[in-house]
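Pasting as-is:
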Amino acid sequence: MKLYDKALVTIDQMGNELTRDRIREFCLLNCKEVYLCYIAPEHIIAGEVGHSLAVGDHGGDANVTQEHVRALQEYVDLLAAEGVDVHGQIVTAAEYDRGDAIVSLAQQLGVDLTILNFEVGGASAKAKVTQQIVARNPKMAVLVARPTT
């Protein structure tokens, strides 16, 4: 029996071998189904600053590269090889907007655990996102991974 039916695991370009090992071990032991969310950086376009934009329409410059796709595929392959039911997707978000993107995706997927394993922004960014998740989804568990870099 697994502790969590569905888990959303966030990762970014700063992940490393230790990050992959942690995700593999935790998800293998505790999660029935895993949704890996690779957060690709989105850069703000100067002309768009100050506009009210809908979630998913950030007005930024999202540059999803083959490196992002390769990194996500590596995580998906790692978990799939262990028999984990795993899905992956890339979400683009500016650093200030990651919390909303993560919370929206968690709600859309109906996960019961969100693992914040991104590195960009450090502990303070993870604390802010945790606060956003708890405010909008008080029954959802949040695991904040310590930095690996």
